[in-house]
Amino acid sequence: MSKIKQLTDQLVDQIHESGCSPREVLARCFSAFVPSLRIFEHRKPARAKHYLAFIRERPCIVCGSQVTIDPHHHGRHAMGEKTDDYRCVPLCHYHHMTYHDRGFAGDLEGWSDEDFLEHTVRLLVLYLRGIEGT
Predict the structure, then answer these.
(1) What pLDDT score does 29 carry?
(2) Alpha helices (H) along the chain
(3) DSSP string, 30-64
(4) pTM (whole model) above 0.85
(5) Residue 124: which of 64, 52, 70, 46 has the closest Cα?
C-alpha cells in the first residue's frame, strides 16, 4: 500500500470520527490531484482561519524553521486566486518567496506537488486529531 493511500485512509478515518463531511473535505483537498473529485471547481474556495493558524504554528517543511511561517496554498486554482485553505503547507517566508519566484528550484529542487500533497494529508490528520482532543 502506497504512503499516500495509507495517509488518505487514515485521514478518512479521522474525518469520520470528527463528524466532518469526508466527501467535502477530501474533495476540496484532492480535487487538484484526483479528477473524479472535481465537484467543487466552480465554488468559492473554502476559507478556514483556524486551520491557517494551525499551519502557521508548524515548522517549514523544507528547512524546519519556525520563524515567519507562511501557509503556501497549492493545487489547482485560477490565476490570482488561492485554492482552499485546507490545501496548504507551512513554508518559511524565504522558501515561500523562493517557490513563487522560481518554482521547484534552488532549495526546493527535488520537491514536487506530490510532496506537498503528502504533507497536506499529514497536516490534516494532525489537525483533526487536535480537534478530537478538545
Answers:
(1) 58
(2) 3-18, 22-30, 49-56, 93-102, 113-133
(3) HTTT-GGG--STTSPPP--HHHHHHHHTSPPTTT-
(4) no
(5) 52
